[in-house]
Amino acid sequence: MNRFIPTFLFASSLFLFQGCSLLSKTADASDQEQQSMEHHDMSNMDEDSSHHDMNNMNMDGESTPGNSHHDMSNMQEETVKTETEAKLTVPDAIAPNQSFPLAINIQDSAGNPVSNFDISLEKRMHLIVVSDDLEFFAHIHPKYTDQGQFDIEPSLPKAGNYTLFSDYKPAGDAERVSLMHLSVAGTKEASAKIDKSSTKSFGKTKVSFSTDKEQIKANEPLTLKFDIQDTATNTPVKDLQPYLGKTGHLIIVKQSNTLTSEDYIHAHATEGTALGKVDFETQFPEPGKYKLWGQFNRNGKIITADFWVNVL
Ligand SMILES: [Cu+2]
């Protein structure tokens, strides 16, 4: 009897303690769930939401090591998503056709440099530069210096405004796209007329663009098809090689008065297509005119094939 009471007291206090800890665990779990939901909501509002989801969809089902890595980052996106910002530093006056120093500093929301990046498709940063009329396009790779800073010396062909989409992935975090703007000084030339043709030659390469749908409608998944031939022989090219880890890259930008990161899509080629054929699966977020640039590697020479599409 003497021994029973203390045991009983001990047992009941243990029970109470356990009950408490269970309660607090439940509370913790629901807190976490709420937090991660808030993160998710934030990430939806964030710059790289739907486009990147599409992007990731394109990458699913492929089996390169880079891909499974990317899938992991998708899972992390649910819980880890820091806010980042890209700060652009360029000279006050930029002249056409003259190279100039361009620095991009990636910072977190507190203004601290983000200094660790995962390598995505062979690079720490992919930088897409387009003129506002979408006539000019460049896909370049600034060199990582230190303390969140990337440097490159580009040159831009004509006066006017340009938009820069920087695509990067802070270590262990979700991939994102940050937008920047710059202008080149001088008198603006009139934009060239939009070339709507779907077959064009780019040097020794002839590219035909088509889709698997008769009409391209917003928010409908579709396949964008590139048929790549040698102009000399009119036969499918046999010398396509991977470019930045993929058979092809496709950048799509919506024609818009003020470009936002919502206007930007970066898709990757699906694997297993026939000789000289490169397919991309994607969808357009809203009706409008879009310009797309397919990029392919012919034995070390990068072909950039641009086309316009009208999305209903
Ligand atoms: Cu790139």
Could you explain the architecture of this structure?
With about 300 residues, the chain is of the alpha+beta class. The protein has two domains: about 75-185, Sandwich (Immunoglobulin-like); about 200-310, Sandwich (Immunoglobulin-like). It is about 20% helix and about 35% strand. The protein has helices at about 5-45, 50-60, 65-75, and strands at about 85-90, 100-110, 125-130, 135-140, 145, 150, 160-170, 175-185, 200, 205-210, 220-230, 235, 240, 250-255, 265-270, 275-280, 290-300, 300-310. The strands form four sheets. Strands 9, 10, 11, 12 and 16 form a five-stranded antiparallel sheet that branches. Strands 13, 14, 15, 17 and 18 form a five-stranded antiparallel sheet that branches. The chain has a four-stranded antiparallel sheet with strand order 1-2-6-5, with no helix packed on it. A hairpin with a 7-residue loop joins β7 and β8 (about 175-185). The chain is globular. The N and C termini lie far apart (about 85 Å). Bound molecules: copper (II) ion. Copper (II) ion binds near residues 123, 126, 139, 141 and 244.
